[in-house]
Amino acid sequence: MINDIISHIDASREDALVRLNELLRIPSISTDPEAKPGIRAAANWIHGFFENCGIESMILETEGHPAVIADTGPVDGDGPTVLIYGHYDVQPTGDPSLWKSEPFAPEVRDGRLYARGSADDKGQVFTHMLAAEAWKKVAGKLPIRVKFLIEGEEEIGSKHLGKILEEQKDRLACNYVCLSDTPKLSEEKPAITYGTKGMVYKEINYTAQTQDLHSGAFGGTFPNPGNALNELIAKMKDADHRVTIEGFYDDVLDSTPEELASLKTLPFDEEEYRNSVGAKALVGEKGFTTLQRRWLRPTLDVNGLLCGFTGEGSMTIIPAKAMAKVSMRLVPNQSAAKISASFDKFVEKHTPAGIDHTIKTFTLCDAYMCPLTNPGLKQAAAAVEAGFGVAPAFTREGGSLPILPLFKKVLGAESLMVGFSLPTCNLHGPNEFMVVDDFYKGIRTSAHLFDKMAN
After folding, report:
1. CATH topology of 2-196+368-454 equal to that of 198-252+298-365?
2. Does domain 198-252+298-365 have CATH number 3.30.70.360?
3. Residue 246: closest CA among 366, 350, 331, 346
4. What's the pLDDT tens digit per position in 418-430?
5. Do the beta carbons of residue 225 and residue 355 sit within 8 Å?
6. Residue 438, preceding peptide bond in cis (omega within 30° of 0)
7. Using only C-alpha atoms, what is the Rg of the chain?
């Protein structure tokens, strides 16, 4: 049967692209209050797609933007239930002068489909929708039960996803969550991401005086929040780029020999990586390779600094206030709550006399990792190889996806991250694109995934 399904998908390529373009034309920017009609239109379009191909669907209202839940229904046999997660909301378009074509007027150039949402995430989640439709049209049913949860708030932090999962727990019950919101390794090599980092994001505010002071008249007599905050930040790492916050590495697990061996097989060039962003050097925790530091080791970085006079020319002051934003990316087995508390104690301990401080916590998110031995992960890899003709690389991600530990906690399901976009696809930037051939191969991969999960 799978051969018939793939034949149908291949014969329907042109139509698939036409319908993707319809979805991409909808300006569903979740952060823009004036774009609410686009949000509603996108939810309605997806709901209508499922209804038109005979898949039960509903629009779930939230206190924010609606989500679409669909279900292909029970099947004979004891194969797993897979929940496809994705999002129809998109990022703002930014400076229109930087786009070579209109963000919501899809255009194919040199085999790439340019439009906002083409890679993140309309183009990717639509591959799974089309694969489900192909099974329905050709076989009349899917070989496993497949559910869909496509939300409209991912780009603004999935504010109501936790409530959706809790309230719709029975409706969304599954064995695996599959999402395609991650990249391939390269143009030639597809990838399955099996782990993401957690994150703790903080803002530190230092205050000394009630106003800025003349640095000549008052210099050397009052605390300088700028000096103090810089000294604090400098103490957060040692000369080997190891984080000095007490207990930071206590729960970090050693990488397995299998993981380290897998990393060595990846086609990664450090100089090419350095040159790709115009950097002069690679730095990081001593004793680890660049890929290990990116994916397997926790990190700490300053994300923003604000202090004193920053305009043109000079203004000789001792600033009254200073602020820094700091993020820590965590690895599996580290607790975001524990690291958060340790960070706060570190700031308290090293804040000098005469300085008042406050700490704001913006993000607490644990890391996620699906074991490489998981049977679902193996079937996903086989599906990717069948769809792309190339075995995928297994990668971890330096970024964070708070939804993954949430899926694990509420649904008890492991997540399979099967991405079809390029790492250079300009997501969140101008001229976002998806390679058209990868879009087609993604549909094939999803169809194979349903088949292989059933077997």
Report:
1. no
2. yes
3. 346
4. 999 999 999 999 9
5. yes
6. no
7. 24
